[in-house]
Amino acid sequence: MAQKEFAGQMVDVNEEGYFTNPQQWNKEIAAAVAKEEGLELSDKHYAIIEFLRNRFNSGEALSIRSINKSGIVDVKEFYALFPGAPLKKSTKIAGIPKPSSCI
Amino acid sequence: MKRKNRRICSGDIIFLRKYFVAFYIFSIFDKRYNKSSKYFPMKNILILGAGTAGTLIANKLRKRLSKKEWSITIVDENKEHYYQPGFLFIPFGIYNQNDVIKPKLKFIPKGVDFIYSKIDKILPQENKVLLEEGKKELKYDFLIIATGTRIAPEETPGLLGELWHKDIFDFYTVEGAVALAERLKSFNGGKLVVNITELPFKCPVAPLEFIFLADTYFKKRGIRDKVELTLVTPLPGAFTKPIATKMLSGLMEEKNIKIVPDFNIAEVDNQGKRILDYEDKAVEFDILVTIPTNKGADMIERSSMGDDLNFVPTDKHTLQAIGHENIFVLGDAANLPTSKAGSVAHFAADFLEENLMSAIKGEPLKAKFDGHANCYIVTSYSKGTLIDFNYETEPLPGRYPYWIGPFGLLKDTRLNYFGKLFFKWMYWNLLLRGHHLPVTSHMSMCCKEKPE
What is the pTM for the complete model shown? Predict the structure, then answer.
């Protein structure tokens, strides 16, 4: 199992850099992961991250669509906050697995 | 004379004795039967939806359960059964409507009550289902939800605009596929875009098959060089799993089909004939073939039993609806992390049947579904490939079924194509009627190779 250092702490990650143990996550680590992705986290970023972590912990599926249910941002704003691939970036920063695309 | 009379008399006595013995035995059984009816009244299994999943489980259960103890009722609002894998061939004139439609009733076994009705909602706390805005109610001991999935183009702004079924088409409905067939006939060149709106969607290989068949169709018409074929997808590539993606991407490149990955459609610009994503990336089209958002039945939402897309949260191994001990879910209606495909419903049915038998006896549910899916992928008018996978194992190259299998997994062969065509016969004659097919319900690792 690969490990990577963020904010002075070692965390377990997979080959794509996603946390394999969401328990190892904290806000400082999130900021460090975000920095690698070229992002500075605002309160809105943290609010979305919290929403994603709660949803993940309750076993609900994560999708672009589910962001509309967050009450924090709509999908367009979600893209503005995490440009490029918002769900992939935000889940990586939130320390949870990359949403699997079931096909 | 006397002798004769005595003989007749004796024969009569023997006959009467036999008659009374038979009557006595019958009366004992009859008493027992009536007793059992009195103290153990008929129990009800209710199946919602008579598509692939509902029909085949109705057939299996009617064979398995005593008609004296169990009534089985199936409800559906449509009278026609669609062979959905055939929709793909309609736009190219390979099949027409008559090839894919038969009456549902033809496939419902004797001893199963069929009710044509809209379903209002399920009341799981009361073990009953309301039909047609509460006009009638059906009670159940066990409920099987098999209401499938539908396309929901209304979820994407502009998709149902002025170009709908003029230059924008789906091929997941008969109407869409037929309208697209007409449009393709008059199409003499330009941009044909196939767009996947979001996941999950039914038959995940269908968009690839469509675009491969379009390639052959335009080649046959001698205008392939005038048509630009593009797949626009929210996925990072042609498919999700790496080994299959590699094989399928190679085929796309070979056929000069472009791919625009990581594109989440936000809206359709009907005037400009463009689709836009959330970052205002735009792709222009002359014909747009859309795979719209897929949703479970609206009835699931009315029953407050679904997720964001009205799919029912379901235990992925036991197929029991989460939080409901006497409700099971089969086919596309479930939120299982595997393909929404007829093959999944077919394989899962065996596990559901076993678990339902256990539930009836009050025993733990032992049968564990592994997410087994199996899909033919046509790659032209004469070749095809095949994938076989489950929750844990991605599609791998090899042979199917077993080691003797004539079909090549992740191999582009003529036999695979004919396998897909032959499957139509198997579907109508064996699969729907709940007969055993010569394949295993769980995924087998036999004859699969993991590439280095």
Answer: 0.87
